[in-house]
Amino acid sequence: MNYSISDAATRAGISIHTLHYYEREGLLHVARASSGHRRYTSDDLAWIGILTCLRETGMPIRTMREFAKLVQQDSSNIPERIQILEAHRLEVIEHLAALQHNLEHVEGKIGFYKKVLAQGKTQS
Amino acid sequence: MNYSISDAATRAGISIHTLHYYEREGLLHVARASSGHRRYTSDDLAWIGILTCLRETGMPIRTMREFAKLVQQDSSNIPERIQILEAHRLEVIEHLAALQHNLEHVEGKIGFYKKVLAQGKTQS
DNA sequence: TCTTGTCCTTGAGTGCACTCGAGGTTCTAA
DNA sequence: TTAGAACCTCGAGTGCACTCAAGGACAAGA
């Protein structure tokens, strides 16, 4: 079973344009029908899922390109793939911690405003 | 006590250029010395801290501008301020959940690669 | 066959958040 | 007094990740 680009876009939850873009950027290599139209396999979709996961966690395209390049080669470079993912993992964890920290500040501010509101009401 | 722009930038952990930019964008209004040089008060620095917190949690500049506008007015609009912050809070929480979810995928992938390495087998 | 919708490529455009440069003024320390 | 650092404004430039448009080829149902 394989998929047209619009199927693939729907299933991956990204736009056709983004799929084109990812291919231009060397993140993806998709087989073609005799017509020249792209035919996505379920392996392609799984790989797009990984790309999307990496993007949504903030990995820049250039790093994704490096990773994609390694995956396209043989399995002798798995240690390098792990290295990229581990480095990324640490960045995500840091980002999560920062977000959580800043979220507390936002919530503190909300709490402050609510207190001001409550006091203003009892006064007037 | 007040601060020069370079002091303010250092204390806020952002660049002088970004401070100029934020002021151009209406996020910030700083008093001037007779020379025309900006003089940041500690209130300004606290406000810059809030701005930085909102930015680091992904609030777009245009929303920050709305919020800044409300803060510049009187306290009668505190409910609207709360509304902006609450909406932002929900977005941050969603983003955190998505990040956490995707982080698990990344970790799963790392685990997979490590298993492949341990077994000495090949597969992407 | 015809029509309408999907797909192709290439190159340009968009939006965001900075970031920089030029040309000039002001401050500060020797 | 004077050299050099810090500051000012304004407009342009940058990097990123898309996003779109034009002009043409291909596909599938009536």
Please describe what this structure looks like.
Two copies of one chain form a homodimer. Chain A is mostly helical. The first copy, chain A, folds into two domains: 72 residues, Multidrug-efflux Transporter Regulator, Chain: A, Domain 2 (Orthogonal Bundle), CATH 1.10.1660.10; 48 residues. Chain A has five helices and three strands; from the N terminus they run βααββααα. In chain A, α4 packs antiparallel against α5. At the A-B interface, α3 and α5 of A face α3 and α5 of B. Chain B binds a DNA duplex (30 and 30 nucleotides) through α2.
Write the layout of secondary structure elements.
The structure is a homodimer of 124-residue chains.
Chain A: E1 2-3, H1 5-12, H2 16-24, E2 31-32, E3 38-41, H3 42-56, H4 61-72, H5 78-123
Antiparallel strand pairs in A: 1-3, 2-3
Helix pairs in contact in A: 4-5
Chain B binds a DNA duplex (30 and 30 nucleotides) through helix 2.
What key phrases describe this protein's structure?
homodimer; 124 residues; mainly alpha; Multidrug-efflux Transporter Regulator, Chain: A, Domain 2; 2 domains; 6% strand; DNA-binding
The ordered H/E elements of chain A are: EHHEEHHH
Strands of the widest sheet of chain A, in order across it, are: 1-3-2
Largest sheet of chain A: 3 strands, antiparallel
What is the terminal separation of chain A in angstroms?
70 Å
Low-confidence runs of at least 5 consecutive residues of chain A: none
How many structural domains in the coordinates of chain A?
A: 2
Percent of residues of chain A in beta strands?
A: 5-15%
Number of DSSP strand runs of chain A: 3
CATH topology of the largest domain in chain A: Multidrug-efflux Transporter Regulator, Chain: A, Domain 2
Q: If helices are DSSP runs of H or I spanning 4 or more residues, what is the number of helices of chain A?
A: 5
